Amino acid sequence: MKSEPKYSLTLNIKPSETEIAYEHFMKKLSFETDVADLLIDLKKGYSGITVIDVRDELSYQECHIPQAISMPGNQITEKTVEMLSKDQVIVAYCWGPACNGATRACAKLSKLGYKVKELIGGLEYWRKEGGDVTGTLAENAPLYWTYKR
């Protein structure tokens, strides 16, 4: 007979009080959205969202979410975002969960006064969860960014 362990790695740090946990998770949700929610909103034609692809222009040309506009993160400035509406929520994405390009873009955009959310999992999860893509390579495009020498 196997005895129950006396120590739990999971519970080594106690969980938060329920009210604090609720505030944390609600705040987290205010910063991000998932593929399913965005996919449904775009399929329904919801007009309160602008989707931006913050990867480089070539990657965008090869494969992107059909409704997305290209706005490479390293080119986001007050001047380059003038055409974006501050009345809409901007959903930014990059390659995938190992890429912080969308996080950086959201930081820049929020500093400029835009309401933003980051797409959890980026284009990688969008494609894995069956979201449509378009571009010169579309679904045949590389799934991940790779360093080219």
UniProtKB/TrEMBL annotation:
Pfam families, per the entry: Rhodanese
PROSITE patterns: RHODANESE_3
PANTHER family hit by this protein: FAD-DEPENDENT OXIDOREDUCTASE, PYRIDINE NUCLEOTIDE-DISULPHIDE OXIDOREDUCTASE
Protein name: Rhodanese-related sulfurtransferase
Residue intervals of the Rhodanese domain: 45-135
Signal peptide (UniProt feature, chain positions): none
Keywords: Transferase
Organism (species): Litchfieldia salsa
Highest taxon, organism lineage: Bacteria
An example Gene Ontology molecular-function term: transferase activity
TM ranges: none
